[in-house]
Write a structure and sequence with these properties.
Elements: H1 3-22, H2 29-32, H3 40-46, H4 56-80, E1 82-83, H5 91-104, H6 110-120, E2 124-125, H7 134-137
Antiparallel strand pairs: 1-2
Helix pairs in contact: 1-4, 3-5
Length: about 140
């Protein structure tokens, strides 16, 4: 497995762990399967960005995205000493972005638009001691 594939797998595993340990016990079946890889068709029906974090599906996808992007920032810092400012990624930006993407792309998954958002986002230079996260530093 290449270093890039390991990083991507590790990011997804970290995000899944964050989600699994923070999801409420009464969560709907959609959420227990991993909302970041749920079908856009289902999410487009269940999300309502106007309700903000008062909508269960909205807050679950929002907090999943925050965890996923936090994990991505670790990999970005390890690789290029750059990161995405997550304070700019609030519910007013993320929920409509995901909802619109899912309405237009029912056969896709929301992780696709988040990966593109991370790639396109302005990066900030950060101080990072390379090798502090063993899986991210391993280039084999």
């Amino acid at each position: 497995m290449s270093a890039t594939a390991r990083r991507r797998f590790a990011l997804q595993a970290m995000a899944a762990c964050i989600f699994c340990f923070t999801a409420p016990a009464w969560a709907e079946p959609l959420t227990t399967a991993g909302i970041g890889v749920a079908s856009c068709e289902k999410l487009a029906k269940d999300m309502n960005p106007e309700e903000g974090l008062n909508n269960t599906v909205n807050y679950l996808i929002f907090y999943w995205v925050q965890g996923y992007m936090s994990a991505a920032n670790i990999a970005l810092l390890e690789g290029d000493s750059q990161y995405v400012d997550l304070s700019l990624m609030n519910e007013k930006k993320l929920l409509p972005l995901i909802h619109d993407f899912c309405k237009k792309n029912p056969g896709k998954k929301p992780i696709s638009v988040i990966d593109q958002l991370i790639e396109d986002a302005d990066k900030i230079e950060g101080k990072w001691k390379s090798g502090t996260v063993p899986w991210a530093a391993d280039d084999d």
